[in-house]
Design a protein that fits this description.
The chain is an alpha+beta fold. It has helices at 13-20, 47-54, 68-77, 93-96, 119-126, 161-185, 217-226, 292-299, and strands at 2-7, 25-30, 35-37, 42-44, 58-60, 82-85, 103-107, 130-137, 147-154, 234-237, 240-244, 248-249, 261-263, 268-270, 277-278, 281-284, 290-291. The strands form four sheets. The chain has a seven-stranded mixed β-sheet, with helices on both faces. The protein has a four-stranded antiparallel β-sheet with strand order 10-11-16-17.
């Protein structure tokens, strides 16, 4: 089939590469417009846009998927199907009706669970034992379309959302290719999603990523892992922000008041509503990332220094 692929972040790159190596023709790629990144806000091309340019494929960067010029170009290309992975923009009916086989999305959850922008983060945050990926035909509702295929993936106890997303991105690439093969042959039929088990996964904001050490250690652990690498878990220390890497529940340690720091040469513990957690890496405001032991050796936290205090 002739395809126009839509995607933007690194998680979409394995699918694009798999499609380039498949029997299908990737005629063009749609990605989000170039955006500023990093401290200097240097304008950069999306990861998908970079791979497409290297492969010599036409790259379309509409401000909105409803832009008339973009829709006209899509009609000129005449794709049979438009596979989508984390494109990041809403698709309206005028775009959905152009390819004869529609737009097929690879979504990183077992639909109808975790519909929305951040399914992997919410799976980690909720403590799911198993998640997965699904391919489905896009319709106007949010991730409500009929499903073509699924795969499952265990959530490991120490998984960050970045770890889990990387595995799903690579496994899902194969699922997407198999789905398109089945659509082309006519052997694959999409089935409506069930009405039960629906949950939603809105984007996590920096405020959502603020750690409350008054919560149980299990909740603290899940929140930090869910927000790693983005939007990045954080707390406060002596009036400044302190970014947190993944922590480890320390069930062997004596209880500490929530937010109280206890450090020695080997580890740094912080109290929660249950048992303490052990800090891994931290990043003080305006400084580099470092091991928590190194940080504590420099700041020498006292009994009055509570993480999360205003």
């Amino acid at each position: 089939m002739k395809l126009v692929f839509a995607g933007t972040p690194e998680a979409a790159v394995p699918s694009l590469r798999a499609l380039l190596e498949s029997r299908h023709e990737v005629a063009a790629v749609v990605t989000r417009p170039d955006a500023g990144a990093g401290r200097g806000r240097r304008v950069s091309v999306s990861p998908v846009g970079q791979v497409a340019a290297e492969a010599g494929i036409e790259v379309l960067k509409p401000e909105k998927a409803s832009d008339p010029a973009f829709l006209d170009r899509l009609r000129e290309i005449g794709p049979d199907c438009c596979p989508v992975v984390a494109y990041g923009a809403l698709l309206r009916e005028e775009a959905l009706g152009i390819p004869r086989h529609g737009w097929v999305n690879l979504h990183f959850s077992l639909l109808p669970a975790w519909r929305g922008a951040a399914p992997v983060q919410h799976a980690v945050l909720a403590g799911d034992d198993v998640t997965g990926a699904a391919t489905f035909r896009i319709e106007t509702g949010l991730d409500t379309g009929p499903v073509f295929g699924v795969l499952t993936e265990p959530v490991r106890p120490d998984d960050t959302s970045g770890d889990l997303l990387d595995r799903l991105a690579h496994a899902g690439a194969g699922l997407l290719v198999r789905t398109l093969d089945g659509i082309e042959s006519g052997e694959l039929t999409a089935r409506p999603q069930g009405a039960e088990g629906v949950s939603h996964a809105p984007k996590l904001t920096p405020e959502d990523a603020r750690v409350d050490f008054g919560a149980p250690a299990l909740r603290v652990d899940r929140l930090v892992r869910a927000c790693t690498p983005a939007p990045g878990a954080w707390t406060t220390f002596r009036g400044g922000r302190l970014k947190l890497g993944p922590v480890r529940p320390a069930e062997d340690a004596a209880p500490l008041p929530p937010g109280r720091v206890a450090a020695d040469k080997h580890r740094v513990l912080v109290g929660t509503a249950t048992h303490p957690v052990e800090l891994g890496e931290v990043q003080p405001q305006g400084k580099r990332r470092m091991a928590a032991v190194e940080w504590a050796r420099g700041v020498r936290p006292g009994e009055a220094d509570l993480l999360g205090a205003e």
